[in-house]
Amino acid sequence: MKLRILDDSLRLRLPKGEVDQLRASGRVEAAIHFGPGPRQRLVYALVVAPDAQRMSAVITESEIAVHLPEAVAHAWVDGDEVSLQGEQAVGEGRTLSLLVEKDYKCLTPRKGEEDYDGFANPKASC
After folding, report:
1. d(CA 54, CA 68)
2. What angle, 0 to 180 degrees and rounded to 10, lies between the N-to-C axes of helices 70-78 and 16-25?
3. How many other β-carbons are positioned within 10 Å of the β-carbon of residue 75?
4. What is the pTM of this model?
5. Which pLDDT band, with edges at 50, 70 and 90, does 38 fall under?
6. CB 28 within 8 A of CB 45
7. Contact 100, 84 (CB under 8 A)
8. Cα(119)–Cα(123) distance, rounded to whole angstroms?
9. Percent of the chain scored above 70 by pLDDT?
10. How far apart are the C-alpha atoms of 51 and 60, rounded to whole Å?
11. pLDDT in tens, 55-99
12. DSSP assignments along 3-68, one per residue
């Protein structure tokens, strides 16, 4: 899963295998390590939340989690929709923009991504 944070926006991009994992378990996560200990890593996750009314994000000491309503998550993983968008008021007149996307393979090969599990790019020609 790829994580992008830019100002008050958060984007997660998932390859096929992680979309399948979300379907099967209701959660997919990854982590970035800043040091050897468990307190020196940041987990980021996408979670199916059966009681959620809309997409939202929460942060704890060591985790950023984006929650999806169950019906929305199931429609997305089983459908052709590429992205899900949401917004969350965060106080003081600010809004956090959320974007969850199925990740396509790049049209131009990149070193280290030869076997990447991305979705087939619709702009690729056979």
Report:
1. 7
2. 140
3. 13
4. 0.84
5. confident
6. yes
7. yes
8. 11
9. 83
10. 19
11. 999 999 999 999 999 999 999 999 999 999 999 999 999 999 999
12. EEEETTEEEEEE-HHHHHHHHHHSEEEEEEESSSSGGGEEEEEEEEETT-SS-EEEE-SSEEEEEE
Cβ neighbors of 47 (< 8 A, separation 6 or more) are 26, 27, 65, 66, 67, 68
The per-residue pLDDT for range 93-107, each reduced to its tens digit, is: 999 999 999 987 655
94 token code pair: 């600010």
The answer to whether residues 30 and 14 touch, using CB atoms and an 8 Å cutoff, is no
At 36, the amino acid letter reads P
